[in-house]
């Protein structure tokens, strides 16, 4: 007799099937980095760098002019915006040689000054100062802060979300310091004039 051992059919195993929901999550996971990259690229293309620049004519006691061209950093404060920068005085005539004198200018504009978009000359709403330093001296000491007063011609000013959107000013300031005796009202005070444009540039 023959003994037959029939082969039993193997149990059928279904291949694992991906559920549509799982595929959707995998697809989203792959697309998210691309979406973030696209958003960054669009934001970068629409973003413009803003810098505030000053190009001032500086005179001491009505003498020969010097040029002070420098970028100004902006600080936003509760009471307004402060612009501050440091640069080297240069001769105003060819070959425009730099001098050893370094000047730091600071201009604080109040919220009232900034929120008033009208054009014209203003004598208030701002505080300006000047500090000078002779870089050729070994001690590298600078002058005390020299207060400035005068007028600012507003050609354009505009704020958007508390940030400068437009700014074009022309300064006409006088900065008075004590003389060599460091005494005020002694007749030897030094008078510096700062005249020229301060404007916002978009790159």
Structural account:
With 203 residues, the protein is of the alpha+beta class. The chain folds into 2 domains: 18-47; 50-202, Lipocalin. It has helices spanning 20-46, 111-115; strands spanning 50-60, 66-77, 80-91, 98-110, 120-122, 126-134, 146-160, 163-177, 190-202. The protein has an 8-stranded antiparallel barrel with strand order 1-2-3-4-6-7-8-9.
For this entry, give a set of tags.
Lipocalin; alpha+beta; 16% helix; 203 residues; 8-stranded antiparallel barrel
Task: Break the fold down into its secondary structure elements and pairings.
Blueprint: H1 20-46, E1 50-60, E2 66-77, E3 80-91, E4 98-110, H2 111-115, E5 120-122, E6 126-134, E7 146-160, E8 163-177, E9 190-202
Antiparallel strand pairs: 1-2, 1-9, 2-3, 3-4, 4-6, 5-7, 6-7, 7-8, 8-9
Percentage of β-strand residues? over 45%
Q: Rounded to an integer, what's the Rg over CA atoms?
A: 33 Å
Low-pLDDT runs of 5+ residues are: 40-48
**Helical segment count:** 2
CATH topology of the largest domain: Lipocalin
What is the total number of structural domains? Answer: 2
């Amino acid at each position: 007799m023959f003994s037959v051992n029939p082969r039993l059919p193997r149990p059928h195993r279904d291949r694992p099937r991906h559920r549509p929901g799982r595929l959707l999550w995998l697809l989203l996971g792959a697309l998210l980095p691309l979406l973030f990259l696209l958003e960054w690229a669009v934001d970068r293309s629409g973003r413009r760098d803003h810098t505030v620049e000053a190009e001032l004519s500086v005179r001491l006691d009505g003498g020969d002019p010097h040029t002070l061209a420098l970028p100004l950093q902006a600080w936003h404060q509760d009471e307004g915006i402060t612009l501050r920068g440091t640069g080297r005085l240069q001769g105003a005539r060819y070959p425009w040689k730099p001098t050893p004198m370094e000047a730091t200018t600071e201009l604080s504009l109040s919220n009232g000054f900034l929120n008033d978009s009208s054009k014209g000359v203003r004598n208030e709403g701002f505080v300006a100062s000047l500090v000078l330093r002779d870089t050729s001296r070994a001690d590298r000491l600078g002058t005390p802060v020299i207060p400035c007063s005068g007028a600012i011609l507003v050609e354009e000013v505009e704020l958007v979300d508390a940030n400068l959107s437009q700014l074009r000013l022309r300064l006409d300031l006088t900065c008075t310091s004590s003389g060599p005796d460091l005494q005020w009202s002694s007749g030897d005070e030094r008078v510096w004039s700062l005249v020229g444009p301060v404007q916002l540039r978009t790159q």
